[in-house]
Amino acid sequence: MSREVNPYANQAQLSPLEQEVLWEYAKLSDKIKRISNLAQLTAASPNESLLAELRSLEKKMGLVLTLYKASVWAVMMEQQAAEEEAQQGQHMDNSSEYSGNYA
Length: 103
Fold this sequence. Notes:
Keywords: Cell cycle, Cell division, Centromere, Chromosome, Chromosome partition, Cytoplasm, Cytoskeleton, Kinetochore, Microtubule, Mitosis, Nucleus. Helix content is 82%, strand content 0%.
C-alpha cells in the first residue's frame, strides 16, 4: 500500500475525520506488515557480520568486568590495610602511654 492518495477520501458515508483516521490506520497497518516481514527475514538469516561484532563486544565487556572486579578488590584491600595500620598505630600509642606511667 504505497499509495499516496487516500482511498477513503470522497466517500459519502464517511465524515472527513473518519476518512483521515481510516487512511492513517491503513498506512500504519502497511508499515507494521513491512516491519514484520523484515523481522522474519532477519530471524531466518541472521547477519553474520553483526554477530561477529557482537561476539567481539561480548569479549571486551568480559575483560572490562574482570578489570573492574580487580580494581574494586584492590581498593578494598587498600582500605583494609589502612584500617589495620590505624588500629596498630592506636595500639602502639596506648601501650606507650601505659609503659610511660610505670617507668
